[in-house]
Amino acid sequence: MEIKRHNHFSEIDFAAWNALVEESIANTPFSRYEYLSEWWKTLGGGEWKDARLALLSAWENDQLLGIAPLFLHEYDGQQALLLLGSIEISDYLDLIVREADLPRFLSALLDYLASSLPEAWSALDWYNLPDASPTLPALRAEAERRGWNYHEEIYRPTPRIPLNCSFDEYLARIEKKQRHEIRRKMRRAAESGRVRFYVVDKNADIEPELEAFFHLMVQEPNKALFLRDVMRDQMSRSIRAAHEYGYLWLGFLEVDGVKAAASLNFDYNNKLWGYNSGVSRDFMELSPGWVLLAHTIEWCCENGRYEFDFMRGDEEYKYRFGGVNRFVMRAKVTR
After folding, report:
1. How far apart are CA 227 and CA 51, in angstroms?
2. Residues 333, 148: contact at Cβ < 8 Å?
3. How would you list the strands of the sheet with 271-279, edge to edge?
4. Which CATH number covers residue 135?
5. For residue 255, which of 126, 249, 260, 271 is within the disulfide window of CB 3.0 to 4.6 Å?
């Protein structure tokens, strides 16, 4: 196995990268070439100034076997190697490698980092690893074998709704009071004659829809603060890339022909990944955010998606809609 260091994403073929993602333990939108390459252009929406790329790949018989998408940065008082995509805007991160190849890839990777990486570093600090990722026990085992310190902790909950059912079956699974509330709000919206739900066509011009989404997103003060210019640029790049590659899911709820709520998701690997949303304060009597979320879940049921993933965050509404906790982890190795 040969480990190579890359100074630019273009040094790895994007089709080979994405093909490996789809067979790997990291098969999420956040590990794809177009997502991480765009993330790097803005350094995570300005989250990481002065970051240095440490993009590594493993090859065997001229075949791409694994990718370690890393960067170097002073973090938590140490010179650390972090996963590209860290920390705030990429909900799931991991090494890009088939599970069967993970142990030897990780061993070769750590050998390279320990002896051949020209920059000095003292920690691997990897966030947003799924709690079921095989990287966690493999990294622990490799650290212990080398006499390095390993620390693992829960970073954030990632509630999900298991589906593979009709919408009525989904409703029957959740708490009775909540079930009645969802039905009542959907019925009230429908009976008003003012409400329309639609999903943006995959061939539509995304730019006006993107502007409408951001207009709704900034109605919430915290999101308005978050969406500074460089972060808006980052999100725009990610949304356009998802649209180009066919896995953007952007839904709107209109009231009287005016967009009142937006739901931005990734429709990827037969599930919907709930990335962000926005709600106007002008139509709150019709509960547009709740009604749109209910329609989104109904769409999943009607189109055979096996899960709706709320991704990171423990907001109450996620559990009221039946979210069941999983977690993303932080794994830190120091030497």
Report:
1. 21
2. yes
3. 160-162, 307-309, 271-279, 258-268, 248-255, 195-199
4. 3.40.630.30
5. 260
Which residue type, as a one-letter code, is found at position 227?
A: L
Spatial CA neighbour of 275 closest among 136, 158, 116? 158
178 lies in the same domain as 270: yes
Residues 217, 188 share a domain: yes
Q: What is the 3-state secondary structure (H, E, C) of the chain?
A: CEEEEECCHHHCCHHHHHHHHHHCCCCCHHHCHHHHHHHHHCHHHHCCCCCEEEEEEEEECCEEEEEEEEEEEEECCEEEEEECCCCCCCCCCCCEECHHHHHHHHHHHHHHHHHCCCCCCCEEEEEEEECCCCHHHHHHHHHHHHCCEEEEEEEEECCEEECCCCHHHHHHHCCHHHHHHHHHHHHHHHHHCCEEEEECCCCCCHHHHHHHHHHHHCCCHHHHHHCCHHHHHHHHHHHHHHHHCCCEEEEEEEECCEEEEEEEEEEECCEEEEEEEEECCCCHHHCHHHHHHHHHHHHHHHCCCCEEECCCCCCHHHHHCCCECCEEEEEEEEC
pTM of this structure: 0.95
The tally of domains found in the chain comes to 2
Domain shared by 152 and 166, yes or no: no
Q: Which of 55, 51, 85 is closest to 70 using CA atoms?
A: 55
According to DSSP, the β-strands at 258-268 and 96-97 are unpaired
187-220 per-position pLDDT tens digit: 999 999 999 999 999 999 999 999 999 999 999 9
pLDDT single digits (tens) 94-130: 999 999 999 999 999 999 999 999 899 999 999 999 9
Nearest CA to 38 among 272, 310, 242, 267?
242
- Domain identity same for 12 and 125: yes
Domain hosting residue 36, numbered range: 2-156+330-334
Residues 150 and 167 in one domain: no
Q: Give me the pLDDT at residue 95, please.
A: 98
pLDDT score of 51: 96
Asked if 218 and 242 sit in the same domain, the reply is yes
